[in-house]
């Protein structure tokens, strides 16, 4: 399944009422134990960009961020 074929949930997929539950547990990685919720839409960013780079070059890179030097390093390793 490709990302372009993935169906994004619409308003009909959301329940009519959502109950918020506060969990008292600190995130060990967040500042002061906090955890952000606005990052969720960006979860598909890294795989989508990496897959696009693979489609364009045939090279898989499993590190992020994809800096120009990192991409050139991986492209050079394929040429040699």
Structural domain count: 1
| Beta-strand content estimate | under 5%
Tell me, briefly, the overall form. Answer: flat
Q: Which spans have pLDDT < 50 for at least 5 consecutive residues?
A: none
What does the average pLDDT come to?
81
Series of H and E elements: HH
- Sheet with the most strands, sense and barrel status: none
Number of helices: 2
Which characteristics define this entry?
single chain; mainly alpha; 2 helices; 80 residues
Q: What can you tell me about this protein's structure?
A:
With 80 residues, this protein is an all-alpha fold. It has one domain (17-79). The protein is 31% helix and 0% strand. It is built from two helices and no strands. The chain is flat, with a radius of gyration of 19 Å. The two termini are 32 Å apart.
Short structural summary:
The chain has 80 residues and is an all-alpha fold. 31% of the residues lie in helices and 0% in strands.
Helix/strand layout:
Layout: H1 45-57, H2 68-79
